[in-house]
């Protein structure tokens, strides 16, 4: 009958203060592992696409030049950052009615997403996108604090 070894497996420990990994240049890392910059860019494009989707939902609730301009700016940034180029848009037929509670929830969601955009843009040192995120956060915070517009 087989009996397993009862000795513990020992792995060599690195000396104190020594790094266990060496920084590999991107060429040595290969195409399978994207760089941190590539990862942050893709993450930022994803957050911006989500913000664009919520902005499109808000635009469906009623006409707003400010939201139209914001959607245009966000779409431009997504196109610049996304490897596929064009942002994904919501199909027009999927929009439910736009009651005040729904619009408020959309503004809250958009504010949260814009905050995520700001964090990622700041870590990338992307000033243009960070400024866009700040403007969107301010606009959605203002919309949340203003009284509902009668329909």
Describe the structure.
This protein has 151 residues and is mainly alpha-helical. The protein has one domain (34-89, 96-145). Helix content is 60%, strand content 0%. The chain has helices at residues 26-29, 36-61, 65-81, 100-124, 127-145. Helix 2 packs antiparallel against helix 3 (65-81) and helix 2 (36-61) runs antiparallel to helix 4 (100-124). It is elongated. It starts with 25 loop residues before the first helix and ends in a 6-residue tail after the last helix. The model has no long low-confidence stretch (mean pLDDT 79).
Please report which band the strand proportion falls in: under 5%, 5-15%, 15-25%, 25-35%, 35-45% or over 45%: under 5%
Strand segment count: 0
> How does the helix and strand content classify structurally?
mainly alpha
Main sheet, how many strands, which sense, barrel?
none
**How many alpha or pi helices?**
5
- What low-confidence regions span 5 or more consecutive residues with pLDDT below 50? none
State the order of secondary-structure elements, H for helix, E for strand: HHHHH
Morphology call: elongated
Tally of domains = 1
Helix and strand arrangement:
Blueprint: H1 26-29, H2 36-61, H3 65-81, H4 100-124, H5 127-145
Helix pairs in contact: 2-3, 2-4, 4-5
């Amino acid at each position: 009958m087989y009996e397993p070894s009862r000795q513990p497996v020992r792995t060599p420990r690195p000396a104190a203060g020594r790094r266990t990994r060496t920084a590999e240049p991107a060429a040595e890392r290969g195409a399978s592992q994207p760089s941190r910059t590539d990862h942050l860019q893709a993450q930022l494009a994803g957050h911006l696409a989500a913000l664009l989707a919520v902005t499109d939902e808000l635009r469906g609730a009623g006409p707003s030049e400010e939201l139209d301009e914001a959607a245009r700016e966000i779409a431009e940034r997504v196109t610049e950052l996304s490897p596929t180029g064009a942002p994904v848009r919501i199909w027009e037929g999927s929009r439910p009615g736009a009651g005040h509670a729904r619009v408020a929830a959309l503004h809250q969601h958009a504010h949260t997403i814009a905050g995520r955009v700001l964090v990622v843009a700041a870590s990338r040192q992307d000033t243009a996108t960070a400024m866009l995120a700040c403007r969107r956060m301010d606009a959605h915070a203002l919309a949340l604090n203003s009284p509902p517009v009668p329909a």
